[in-house]
């Protein structure tokens, strides 16, 4: 189409040029070159027209093909949309199936665990059943023994019933006798109550005299207690004094021969060696032994225990 337009433009240009040339030079004849060009251009035009007609036919056929292809494309697009829908649906289905599979697998695990537990329980129940069967057999044996014992007890019950009837008769007789004895008892109680009133008066007077005597004896007991306590204290004190006197006498007896044996010069010499005065040296010589002090402590403790024991005796008895 563009070539056709170019050629038409050129033709028009040429015609215009020829017209202008014809007006200016009417008498001059057209040149051979322009004729040839005109012929060539006309040939080209014809060829282009033929080509255009061919191309128009091809364009029409192509348009028809394009329309058919567009229809086909639409159909294919519809198919694709359907397929996409189907795909999305199938994906959803697959996801649902996967989730169901997971849940089913979890359920299968739980069901397997429950199955294992149930199998264990079944085993345990089977063992229990076997145990219960053995216990039922033993119970049946016991029941047989119990039925035998029951028959024996029924016989014993009949015997006891007969004996009870006999004892009821005896009881009725005894009840009659009891009524008579109760009547006699009431008479005896009335007489005894009168006697008891008299005795109560006598005992009241005796009790008053006993209470007076008790008061006197309690005073005497208190006096005795104080006397015992004072006596024990005095005894302890006198014993301790005696012990101290004995110790002092022993010390004096031991120190005198020691002093006699030592001369005054030797005492002074010993004092100068020890760097102590003569009086201090005498005190050192008069020091008690550890054994004697321990003995004195033991004796003192024993005296204390004895005093506590004697003071507790009158309180206890």
Distance between the termini: 160 Å
In terms of structural class, how would the helical and strand content be classed?
mainly alpha
3D shape: elongated
Poorly predicted segments:
none
Total helical elements: 5
SSE string, helices as H and strands as E: HHHHH
Instruction: Please provide the count of β strands.
Output: 0
Q: How much is the radius of gyration in Å?
A: 78 Å
Fraction of residues in H or I helices: over 70%
Largest sheet: none
Instruction: Average the pLDDT over all residues and give the rounded result.
Output: 80
Beta-strand residue fraction: under 5%
Q: What features would you describe in this structure?
A:
It comes from Thinocorus orbignyianus. With about 325 residues, the protein is an all-alpha fold. The model has no long low-confidence stretch (mean pLDDT about 80). Helix content is about 95%, strand content about 0%. The chain is built from five helices and no strands. The radius of gyration is 78 Å and the shape is elongated.
List the helices and strands and how they pair.
Blueprint lengths: L1 H23 L7 H230 L2 H11 L3 H8 L4 H27 L1
What are its keywords?
mainly alpha, 317 residues, CNTLN protein, CNTLN
Task: Summarize the model shown.
With 317 residues, this protein is an all-alpha fold.
């Amino acid at each position: 189409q563009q070539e056709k337009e170019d050629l038409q433009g050129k033709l028009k240009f040429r015609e215009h040029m020829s017209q202008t040339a014809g007006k200016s030079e009417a008498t001059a004849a057209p040149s051979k070159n322009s004729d040839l060009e005109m012929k060539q251009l006309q040939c080209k035009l014809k060829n282009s027209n033929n080509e255009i007609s061919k191309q128009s036919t091809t364009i029409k056929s192509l348009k028809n093909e394009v329309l058919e292809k567009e229809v086909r494309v639409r159909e294919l697009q519809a198919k694709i949309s359907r397929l996409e829908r189907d795909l999305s649906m199938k994906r959803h289905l697959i996801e649902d199936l996967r989730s169901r599979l997971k849940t089913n697998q979890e359920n299968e695990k739980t069901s397997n665990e429950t199955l294992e537990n149930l199998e264990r329980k079944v085993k345990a129940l089977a063992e229990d059943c076997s145990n219960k069967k053995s216990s039922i057999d033993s119970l049946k044996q016991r029941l047989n023994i119990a039925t035998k014992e029951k028959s024996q007890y029924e016989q014993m019950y009949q015997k006891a019933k007969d004996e009870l009837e006999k004892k009821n008769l005896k009881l009725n007789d005894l009840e009659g006798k009891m009524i008579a004895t109760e009547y006699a008892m009431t008479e005896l109680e009335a007489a005894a109550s009168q006697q008891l009133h008299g005795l109560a008066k006598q005992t009241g007077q005796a009790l008053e005299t006993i209470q007076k005597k008790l008061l006197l004896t309690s005073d005497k007991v208190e006096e005795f207690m104080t006397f015992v306590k004072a006596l024990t204290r005095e005894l302890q004190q006198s014993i301790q004094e005696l012990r101290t006197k004995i110790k002092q006498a022993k010390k004096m007896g031991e120190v005198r021969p020691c002093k006699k044996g030592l001369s005054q010069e030797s005492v002074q010499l010993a004092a100068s060696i020890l760097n102590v005065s003569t009086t201090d040296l005498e005190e050192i010589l008069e020091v008690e032994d550890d054994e004697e002090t321990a003995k004195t402590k033991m004796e003192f403790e024993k005296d204390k225990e004895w005093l506590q024991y004697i003071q507790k005796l009158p309180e206890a008895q």
